[in-house]
Amino acid sequence: MQSRFYDFGGDTIIRADQYVRLTSDRQSQEGWLFSRLPLTATNWEIEVEFKIHGQGNLHGDGMAIWLTKQRAQTGPVFGSVDQFEGLGVFIDTYKNQRPGVVFPYVMAMVGNGSVSYDKDHDGKDNEIGGCSARGIRSSSTPTKIRLTFFAEKSLKVDLQYKSENEWTECFETGPLTLPSVAYLGFSAETGELSDNHDIISVETKNKYVNKAYSEQAAGGSTTDAGGKGRGGGGSQFRQEKERGSWKWFFFKVFVFGGVVVGGYVGWTMWRANQRGRF
What we know:
By secondary structure, this protein is α+β, with helices and mostly antiparallel strands. It is built from two helices and 14 strands, in the order ββββββββββββββαα. The strands form two sheets. It has a seven-stranded antiparallel beta sheet with strand order 1-4-13-6-7-8-9, with no helix packed on it. Strands 2-3-14-5-10-11-12 form a seven-stranded antiparallel beta sheet, with no helix packed on it. The longest helix is centred in the last third of the chain and has 45 residues, at 233-277. The chain is globular and about 45 Å long.
């Protein structure tokens, strides 16, 4: 099977009517799915529905979401390459050596092409933000992750796994520098323990920010991906901007119409005056 937009490899299985299975519930599997075209938007939102499930009480290892210069390669970091350049968001279901942290654990790392992922300590030295997500595996609720990125402002990660349409903020960072051209990808791996790692759906959006909103955000106001500010300020701001834009548009139409009508009346009177002279 082939796709116009994605390549896949490793142990990935495609069920176009249901899911893309990066790994099956078997030991020592690695699979990946990467976009063929880069994501070039400056500000963006990515929402992914996924499912991690399997038999037994012991399971691993986890899956990753990538926005990197590298693409379509198998490797040791949740099924993809190490020393990557770009963003990796990891849903880690197996705890190695990280005392005091509850697993599954969701974390992000920005790679510069030379730094390795600290696999022995579950990425502790690489983490730019993270949260525990107990219950995200085998949840009866559709499990989703939402990444919202504004250049020179922040990366925010939200999770849905407790109940449908209830989003839990995992973390929000400060400004990050990501590659201007990066490929969206997904990967997963199993070791001695295993799980099914399924991608159900992927949705990407280009986020637009005008100058006034950027200045407001820089002053400390935060707006989530749904457009609802904490306290509703962001939504109200956009509505007022939209109403103001329409009023200005109709004003310009009215003025233009007045000019046209005035010009036509003036021309008619001049023509009648010229005829009167003869």
